[in-house]
Amino acid sequence: MEQSRWLRRTGPARLEYGADYNPEQWPRAVWDDDVRAMRTAGVTIVTLGVFSWALLEPAEGQYDFGWLDDAMDLLHRNGIAVDLATATASPPPWLATGHPEILPVDADGVTLGPGGRQHWRPTSPVFRTHALRLTRALAERYRDHPALVAWHVSNELGCHNVHDYSDDAAAAFRSWLRTRYETLDALNAAWGTAFWSQHISDWAQILPPRRAASFPNPTQQLDFRRFSSDALKEHLRAERSVLREVTPDVPVTTNFMVMGDTRGMNYADWAAEVDFVSNDHYVQPGPGRDELSFSANLTGGLAGGRPWFLMEHSTSAVNWQPVNRAKRPGELARDSLTHVAYGADAVCFFQWRQSAAGAEKYHSGMIPHAGEDSALFRAVTDLGRRLGDLATLAGTPRTPARAAILFDWESWWATEADSHPSSRLRYRQEALDWYTAFLNLGVRVDVLPVAAALDGYALVVAPILHMLPGALATRLTGFVAAGGHLVTTYFSGIVDENDHVWLGGYPGPLRDLLGLRIEEFGPLLDDEAVTLDNGATGTLWTDRIDVTAPDVEVLARYTSGDQAGRPAVTWRRGASYVSTRLGPAGLAPVLGDLLARAGVTSELPPGLRGRVELAVRGGYRFLINRTASPVELDDGTELPGTGVVIVAAR
Ligand code: GLA
Ligand code: GLA
């Protein structure tokens, strides 16, 4: 991983604070107010120009940089650094109408119109040419501008356009497949085209998995996901290579979306392409704040444990959920500081000043519609002061935990594919259930991409590791042989990298390690649940487990349902299997037992476990109150409800 570079700036280290700044939405007179209020709030950096293409290049090849020069100069005079966008996220009307061949096409063959944003095909050569020309013009104009500290490629690549089924995509998919398989024989074997008369006899017959009469070929779908992630990664690389050519001293990033159900981009594979990892995160009412912590933790894992940049989150409500709740007092600071706890060295929002017009006018900003005389702006200013006081944290890597949860985008894709034993499995939710169980027990855990090194970890949980290529199975087996403890769950170890089932009984390559064999799955109906002899309840899934090794310990057995009397949770010499969805409450006793076997203990006093979340960066301990009630800390001080304290190691 490259990632050694941070912002191009001199001066003492600090945590950066700021927002997307869209001055073009406001009359020039407001800009002076903006920079004054930014100084009041402690803003150190803004992201500029994300949606400025139409104003920067009002007609093909005609640039108007005057207003951006003015904004850059104004920010610099006020000591505010700029993360400058390449402005290519939303093509201008002249491009979309003059070149409709850049517009994406969905699986039904419907061409998406302009008028929103991100209406471009990742593989359109026409779009690429225009985007790179603008990127170069910006790089050449601002290369030496003292405000410029980083480049922000596009914006949230793939937020709306990751899966494009156009003819451009078809051509690019074919060439991607030629690179991957080289021969049609290899492709036919990988795609299992003997099934349903799908044998391909010419590359030209290959299409994206457009809407079909029945389930499209599963490996074609999987490869299309891989290809689609790679196509956007190629766009990132293309803009990056222009930027590196013109401004080799300015780091390049792009904002990932490690959050919620966003899954189209394999960020584990993208992380090495940026000089530092950036992420956007928005809290959603259902999954709640453990999901925020999980996402921040995983982002830290993608960054290899080093600091990363929180490019966007919200000061309060967003506009794009069915119902958009304002944050409660304390949540703004707690959300921000939770990201800092897991390695963010920059805390930024979308956006600086809440818009008066446009699709996001009900999305909060650092300055709300009510103006600076508002509780929200006071909370923003308080947070700025707090981050200013935490400057010594800057650059501190996180301190690894002794337990880890592995996260794998390909298993996510494969688990939730169609035509499976159950359509109800939710890969990320199972991982999040385990994460919450760790938090409830007060035990720190790192969320890591599946390829991360596991040295130093005593216990590793790999939830629904459905796709298990042979090399990964060997690595995990080696981890256990070296004394590590591995936990995996239902529907893990089922297919190889081509989505072909490992034969001979499930879970193929993990059978010997676990000492068990499964002949048939037992998915549960929505209203079904099964009981276990440890008092827990399982939903969603069961397995018909046969124990095949004498030293398997059955940690819990089914007491109802089709598997009554059979093992539900097993352990064998450091390898454990959980065959049903237990949820955070049901996982607690199981995880407690597994942690004890692995010798992993909580670093919190018993009274704080569950109520307080602990994260550690170097010499700093973050104590985050997960509840709305105050908690008394062991030194007698009070951690307010929804509060965070950061304690330097004594
Ligand atoms: C994304 C985008 C921003 C804005 C926010 C709103 O993160 O990058 O431009 O639309 O969502 O939450
Ligand atoms: C039908 C079809 C078969 C097979 C089965 C699956 O009967 O004719 O090819 O798809 O459904 O249930």
Description:
- The protein is α/β, with parallel strands linked by helices.
- The protein is built from 17 helices and 25 strands.
- Helix 15 links the parallel strand 12 (about 460) and strand 13.
- The protein is globular.
- The relative contact order is 0.09.
- The model has no long low-confidence stretch (mean pLDDT about 95).
- The structure holds alpha-D-galactopyranose (2 copies).
What class, by secondary structure content?
alpha/beta
Unreliable sequence segments: none
Q: What's the end-to-end separation, in Å?
A: 33 Å
Mean pLDDT: 97
What percent strand? 15-25%
Give the strand order, joined by hyphens, for the main sheet.
5-4-3-2-1-9-8-7-6
Helix content: 25-40%
Give the quaternary arrangement of the chains.
single chain
In one word, what is the shape?
Answer: globular
> What radius of gyration results from the CA coordinates?
26 Å
- Major β-sheet profile: 9 strands, parallel
With helices defined by DSSP (H or I, 4 residues minimum), what is the helix count?
17
Total DSSP E strands: 25
Small molecules held by this entry? alpha-D-galactopyranose
Protein traits:
25 strands; seven-stranded mixed β-sheet; binds alpha-D-galactopyranose; 650 residues; 32% helix; globular; alpha/beta
Q: Could you outline the blueprint of secondary structure elements for this entry?
A:
Layout: E1 16-21, H1 28-41, E2 45-48, H2 53-56, H3 66-77, E3 81-85, H4 93-98, H5 125-142, E4 148-152, H6 167-181, H7 184-191, H8 218-246, E5 252-253, E6 255-256, H9 267-270, E7 278-280, H10 288-302, E8 308-312, H11 331-341, E9 344-349, H12 375-389, E10 403-407, H13 409-415, H14 427-441, E11 446-449, E12 459-462, H15 470-481, E13 485-489, H16 511-514, E14 516-521, E15 530-531, E16 537-538, E17 543-547, E18 553-557, E19 567-572, E20 575-578, H17 583-598, E21 612-617, E22 620-625, E23 631-632, E24 638-639, E25 644-648
Parallel strand pairs: 1-2, 1-9, 2-3, 3-4, 4-5, 6-7, 7-8, 8-9, 10-11, 10-12, 12-13, 13-20
Antiparallel strand pairs: 14-17, 15-16, 18-19, 19-20, 21-22, 22-25, 23-24
